[in-house]
Specification:
Shape: globular
Number of domains: 1
Distance between the termini: 21 Å
Helix content: 25-40%
Largest sheet: 3 strands, antiparallel
Structural class: alpha+beta
Number of strands: 6
Order of helices and strands: HEHEEEHEHE
CATH class: Alpha Beta
CATH topology: Rossmann fold
Strand content: 25-35%
CATH architecture: 3-Layer(aba) Sandwich
Number of helices: 4
InterPro entries: SAM-dependent_MTases_sf
């Protein structure tokens, strides 16, 4: 859940991926761009930044941090450059049990997370 806070993701991958053993698996979860887009329209927890390359996510009423909403295709393209191939992709929906148990202050018709895995 940290890649969405990294501006230069390719630079991060360049430094991170040499530590991945042959046959290793890189698994990550980030915010689903469709979920972020929905919250941009219907929530006060996200807003567009002035440069339009990222969004701002509210952590506290006074603290907004930049977040980079990337699609599965953007991660796939980036990691393919490092000879990694996608082995898993999921946009897990909110379960009905979860929604019955918790009252959420945002729309739940879009999955919150994008989960991807890549192997070398």
């Amino acid at each position: 859940m940290v890649f969405q806070f990294v501006e230069d993701i390719d630079s991060l991958f360049k430094h991170l991926l040499p530590s991945l053993k042959l046959g290793g698996l890189l698994v990550f979860a980030v915010l689903n761009p469709a979920f972020v887009d929905r919250l941009l329209k219907e929530s006060s927890d996200f807003k567009r930044s002035s440069n339009q390359e990222n969004v701002l996510m509210k952590l506290t009423p006074q603290l907004w941090v930049p977040a980079y909403s990337r699609s599965d295709e953007q991660y796939r393209t980036s990691l393919n450059h490092f000879d990694l191939r996608e082995s898993y992709l999921e946009f897990p929906p909110f379960s009905s049990d979860f929604l019955q148990q918790y009252s959420l202050p945002f729309p739940t018709d879009e999955p919150e997370f994008l989960i991807q895995a890549f192997t070398n």
